[in-house]
Fold this protein.
Amino acid sequence: MTKPARLDDPDRPSFPLDAWYAAGWDHEIGRTLRPLRVADQPVVLFRRLDGTPVALADACWHRLVPLSTGRLEGDEVACGYHGIRYDGDGRATFMPAQQTINPSACVRSYPTVERHRFVWIWPGDPAKADPALIPDLHWNLDPEWAGDGGMIHLAADYRLVVDNLMDLTHEAFVHTSSLHQEEINHERLDVAHEGRTVTATKWMLGVSAPNFWAAQLNRVFPGWTGLVDRWQIIRFEAPCTITIDVGVAKAGTGAPEGDRSQGVANRIINTVTPETRTRPLLLGQCPRLRPARPAGDDAAARGRRAGVQRGRSDDRGAAAGPHGEPRARLRQPQHRRGRHVGAPRDRRADRRRDHRPAGAFRCGKPMTAPRRLTATVVAATEAAEGVRSLRLQLGERVHAAPGSHVDVVVHLNGRDETRSYSVVAHDPEAGTIDLGIRLGATSSGGSRYLHGLTAGDRLRVTEPVQTFPLTRGRPGYTLVAGGIGITALLPMFRTLVAQDADVRLVYAGRGRARMAFLDQLGHPRVDVVAKDEGRVIDPDRLVADLPEGHELYVCGPIGLLEALRSAWHAAGRPASHFRFETFGSSGRHPAEEFVVEIPRLSLRTTVPANRSLLDALEAAGAELMSDCRRGECGLCEVKVLGCTGIVDHRDVFLSPEQHAPDDHLCTCVSRAASVHGEPATLVLDVP
């Protein structure tokens, strides 16, 4: 579990994230979009056509507009602003006016389980979401117990509510007209700890029944006025589920030994869901009364619930606090640089102004970038020929989900630039992450700089950000890594193996000596495809051998990616089951120097082999919008007016059909290649 913060710490939540929280009653979740907050995270809930509950982050990948303001289309949620559709796994399945879906276009999907009339959500690490950890509240479904339930919103720190429910001595002072009894504060309380539970037990033997219990006992034993044995057994299950077993029986009839046949009992189920750090609180509650009334008569249970509701109203003053509700801190991965990401085909605005959407589009902190940390190199080793492995100490507890990367700041040519690297491994407690850096043949200095680091050196990095998420619970997975692409897929492989999933890793490279982290892949499910051993990947065969329903994850050079994507499409496989990430340094032609012109700006400059077209244009004074700098988002797309050589498209945003006319390109990764040895000249127009 996430370590709890101090009561006076305003910056960290006091509740654990690695836990199950009840998001609502089963009947409240249906074929409508239901917004709520769970553990300070905006969530939208709905049911698929087959009735399965789904929970997604309530913020569109594009502008962070709440998805709950959109609409359901079959099993998909359509954003009400730009119409991007997401499936139940949070993946974008449709983008208006775009043939290629950005591979990072997704929203978070939360593990969700329906059990004991509640719908439960796990807001923490999905890999730890074990349904066996859901509290046992079987009384909600037991026909021998009559009951009714509801919800109460309280303005309080959830820990104060737990305190209120665990310590019933307040009944003598708060519930004076119904449950007051002097013995409550005089009898001994026995407390037992076991694992994630605490049980507090109190017996009051041979006492007068308080008003409420006298009435309940008389429903079953009319006219009874004698003494009773009263009990309070409270069971707490971390982080915030409390079941309260309370009741009375005729004195001396064996209730302490387990025979409650001469009494009545209530099982009060309380599961507390912190919506925000301070307020309000969502308290799901279901009083269960036994023995049950005759079939169809739940009047006693409803009366009990009304009494408890009134009692909770008395308790509100003790538990509530004066704190205001903070705004949600929700960020999607593509906003990691704090820039505004527009619809690629309709974003032509004044580049010199920050056009921030107004009104409903101001959701939380939409452009909050990930924090930058000062990291210390604690180890630097050779992972393979030309590949350096760095272990960085971030100075705090760290979590990197499979498919995460960090942006590293490098100082080149008199200015700071960023380079993105996948997180190969991490140690949460030690606060370390491992990176794998390949020395690029045409490096502009970033990889060369990092290869020169040694233990003790410091550099600035962002906290890990997940842009290539792994979807869990699929029938099977095939991961295909090309070269340094293994850095993104190795954490996924480890995770899936640990979960005993049906997974296969195909790792391709020029030769084993140049393939990083092979020493960590001595596993029967790993297939090493080394070119110098006469082996290459057959895309059509690989796709054909995949069983239906399996997913394909790819990270590697653009040629490998497009070959597999073409085979996938030709086989008629679902587009949403093909997941990929690429690195923009790969192309069909070697990187070489070329000239770029923008006539409208009277601009002409040379693009060196070790520098991107986008960097060269920015250095020459052209103002261009950009974000991913990996050829994925399409934000830096410009019009091509002409080229004396070959346009070397290296992006994955434009489709092959859009590449064919050579009339547009993405400046962050694409280049121009010569035909007859003379440097090519690329002529562009920018909006």
Summary: The chain has a mean pLDDT of 83. Residues 438 and 484 are 7 Å apart (CA to CA). The two ends are 50 Å apart (CA to CA). DSSP finds ten helices and 37 strands in the chain.
